[in-house]
Amino acid sequence: MSATDSVVFLANYPLRAHNTFGFDVRARLACRIERPEQFALAARDARAAGMRTLVLGSGSNIVFTDDFDGLAMIVELTGKRLVREDDEAWYVRAHAGENWHAFVAWTLSMGWPGLENLALIPGTVGAAPIQNIGAYGLEMCERFASLEAVELATGARAEFDANACRFGYRDSVFKREGRERFAIVSVTFRLPKAWTPRVDYADLARELDARGVAPTPQAVFDAVVAVRRAKLPDPLVLGNAGSFFKNPVVDASTLEALRESSPDIVAYRQADGRAKLAAGWLIDRCGWKGRALGAAAVHERQALVLVNRGGATGADVLALARAIQADVRERFGVELEPEPLVI
After folding, report:
1. Residue 60 appears among annotated catalytic residues
2. Where would a tag sit more exposed on the chain, N or C end, judged by fewer CB atoms within 10 A?
3. Are 113 and 106 a contacting pair, CB within 8 Å?
4. 146: annotated active-site residue
5. Residue 66 Rama label (left phi>0; alpha psi -120 to 50; beta)
6. Candidate list 93, 143, 170, 198, residue with the active-site label
């Protein structure tokens, strides 16, 4: 084994800087992953025998309820490049440790648009497929070509296409049965050369109209950044994991029943005839926007975002989430599902 392939383990490692809620928790062991080979080396090392493993980027979609009694693999794989192009698209690959927003900005600077609606989403490139991130009318899976992953137990490399990833709404195979089996090394995106703007969302359309500019890729990027900054707190200032709940999807008859009692309910029709309800609207209508339970609170400008006002624990945030779920269930008969992974 060469020195560059070896793994350095750190005991009782602080994870406060590796979760955007800012919870003061620790990992029993941690290691930094700078080369893909180190994933399997760490997982099979005798010092980590029998331990749970957690592949961790910036921790933008995680709620730690306690210290992590296992091995945290801190992903620091970097690098990005155009791998090929054809008449229809550019294929751009980025390693898992790259900052997502910086990567999106870079693709635009290189003249390869297509990801601009996903600007300013916190996290890393490697986390994007796990959650199938989405915003303002675009989901990551629509720009996805493939990814490379490592099987932790064997070190074997595997390539996943979209079908193998089993993408769903804020979901993928890596969020479920593949979570402790695979680690994502890199992701390749297909960015179509026939670019068309996605500006149907009201907030985005209003921002572009206020700026009085045509919806070029850069203009859409700038508008998305402005809208997100106006509505969402910066995790470096106020700990949070972005949208805490998924927008619930209901059938047409359920939507019509809800409209009888709440004619102004916010809903978006889906291609299959169902409707996606605005979870933030449901939470706001239940009176939770700006309210707190101890140091955990609902953000005053965006009811979908739960925040750590300072000193909150993961248990505090989950208690707040359960109270919100109970009120929405009682008033609307709708179940809210959390987005973040609870550790």
Report:
1. no
2. N
3. no
4. no
5. beta
6. 170
